[in-house]
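Re: [help] complex structure
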Amino acid sequence: MAGQILICRIATGRKRHARRLLFSLQVVLSLSLTPFFASRCEAAHDGVLGPTSTGDTDLSLSVPNLVKITGVADLNMGTYSGSGPLVTSDDVCVFTNDASGAYKVTARGSGTSFAFTLTDTNSHTMNYTVRWNDLSTVISLAADTASSTRAGGNTTSQNCSGGNSAQFEVTLTASALLSKPAGTYTGVLTLIIEPA
Amino acid sequence: MKTKHVLIKGSLTLGLIVATAQSAMAGDGTLGASSTGTSNLSVTTTEMVQITNVANITVNPFVPSSSFPAFDNVCIFSNDSTGPAGYKVTATGQSGSGGTADATSFKIQDATGGAGHTIAYTVKWNDATGGGGTSLTANTISPVFTGGNTYPCVTNNASFEVNITDAAALSVPAGAYTGTLTMVIVPDPA
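Output below.
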């Protein structure tokens, strides 16, 4: 881009010389790049000396796919009562500037190879599972694996206007909870949102 | 000048505290080509135990020198945090039905009850199947036994044994003698 601008400026001051230079560059550059350089330089125009002088330039902006997840809360699942599974969820906001609202989500636990595990101070590990709800479909997530394309990302508000557009859910089965010595188990769940 | 130096140190300390606190909290993602949020998870489990596969012991008819001892295999689960699924057991007997627990002995009785209509029995506990094991004193907590730490408990890993001597069984009138043996399991340490 810097080279392109430089060539265009040369063209304003020394048009004939610069055009010859540009022609030479066009020969050297690959065929695919040649039209790009040429069109860019020809699009901008300097004004001429006179009572008024008008210059014009083309503006271009390429906006990449951008995403954002907010509203992520800690999940303190408290003390297990000993009955049934423990299921806890959190509403989150997923924003994407993909007009379709599509995105993918990857979940990583803090266990070995990003496994979904909680650990106590004696290195006992407790497995849990993670599900993702895009408010249309609920799917199970595999550790460190991008999901299939999810829908429903908010396309207009980075904070979903204070609402939410998805939910993640953590489940600890009774077997997982009780098959390890009593204690406090902790871990970190990382949720990575990417454009679809 | 000295005062300024002190103030700067105070600010830095405060800043570090804030940064530490933030790193331990849930985090939202930032806008970008990908966005990462983090959630800290925590759960606490307390010590729990469970006895399953308890069956009634019915002896009918009583056969001297043969009917006893009788035992039942059971499954003990414990998530004891200090040892390998440790637990203790307290056994309490209740003679007849609907009565109160006997504080110091294990007995069964017939419909009449009272002296001459009561049979005493003994109880043993084993943290293996097949009966035998350690004698239990009524209403007294036992030494530590070891159970299983996989939930739910599937494979029997303990047994209780009831024994009535021939002399005791033959010293009362013929009839049906009943009672309830209650076994209370607690984690170790309780």
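The radius of gyration of chain B is 29 Å.
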